[in-house]
Amino acid sequence: MNNTGIWSRRSRLGLLSASVAVCAMPAGAAAAPSMSVLASGLDNPRHVSLAPDGRTLYVAAAGKAGRDCFGPRRSQTCIGYSGRILALSPSGGAPRTVASNLLSVAGPDGSFATGPDGVSAGPDGRVVTVITSSTQRDISGIPRRAQAQAGQLFRALPRPLTDLASIDSFEWSNNSDGVRGDTNSNPYAVLALDGSEVVADAGANAILSVVGRRVSLLATIRGPGRTQRVPSSLALGPDDDVYVGELAEGAGNGRARVLRLTGEGTPPTVYATGFTTVTGVAFGPDGSLYVTELTTNIRSRSAPGRVTRITPEGRRTSFSRGLVFPQGAAVGADGSVYVSNYSVLPGRTPRSSPFRGAGGQVVKIRGL
To answer: Which key words are in the record (predicted)?
Structure first.
């Protein structure tokens, strides 16, 4: 993956208008599932994770643009420190901040930011996050404060914020996917397990294990030739295996997969297919797999996103109405599904924009 965000930041508010038009069209008949907004005004919300007791939903908010900008005027990149880890009640209410002042990188309008993109609550209650990075050359040219956070795995809870391991350094030294000349790192998703963490490095096309401060390679997510599969999301299955969702933007519509990892050094196997730009995976209490797709038409990026439930028997049901570039997935004990919506937008957009003031949200889907 040759950029620091899950999509290139050349996509801005003006290029997203088609998605609003599609998602605003009335449905022919009322669908059984329903969606409500749990929180709004969030800056580029990404992955979500429920605490073990189900009482707190954690959200990684990648932030928005800062004041330190560089690059050509029409495609500037701006560095700031507005990334946060938030905590919400699944029943609603104002979010509270768990960790703040985290690295955020975006264009001047604040859309398609990247920063703390992943979050996970472990079985012991600890909460961890990972921060975006890039190539070693790119990172060496940014401010020292930003360098200190880029590519790091952090523990957000219990406080204080604690640096656990350097993810990008592993890729710079090892070039995990073996693509010549490509040692780009973009830690994007994290999964906190009992005594260890698993990290999906979207830039490296790699799944990494972290024990203490030691980083090792669990699996490489390869495509044919130089195809970038881009692992974007992680979940622990009811079988205690790790499941990986692929963005697979370059593969085209319907070509993204959910993979299953059964152990270190074992090649991943395909668990489910037929998706487009997977950005979230999670399992429900009955063993159903839930898959979030950023969009259902990668060619135009104009279709709504979607959340699909796959039962253990293989039956699929989907929900898409009102989902605009959703990311992340978490499932409560009652089957409610939590995802980030408008996940590539700052907390507010101009009233004159296609989004008419809308911004990042976390939504709750019932009845899927």
So the answer is: Signal
User: In the prediction, which pLDDT does 225 show?
Assistant: 64
Reported CATH class of domain 13-44+121-366: mainly beta
> CB neighbours (10 Å) of residue 222?
18
Residue 26 has pLDDT above 80, yes or no: no
CA pseudo-torsion sign 229, 345, 145, 162: negative
Reported as a single tens digit per residue, the pLDDT across 79-110 is 999 999 999 999 989 999 999 999 999 999 99
Give the residue among 239, 196, 237, 238 at the shortest CA–CA distance from 218: 196
Cis preceding-peptide flag for 116 (omega within 30 of 0)? no
CA distance 110 to 43: 8
Q: How far apart are CA 327 and CA 28, in angstroms?
A: 25
**CB atoms < 10 A from the CB of 241, how many?**
16
Q: What is the mean pLDDT of residues 103-132?
A: 97
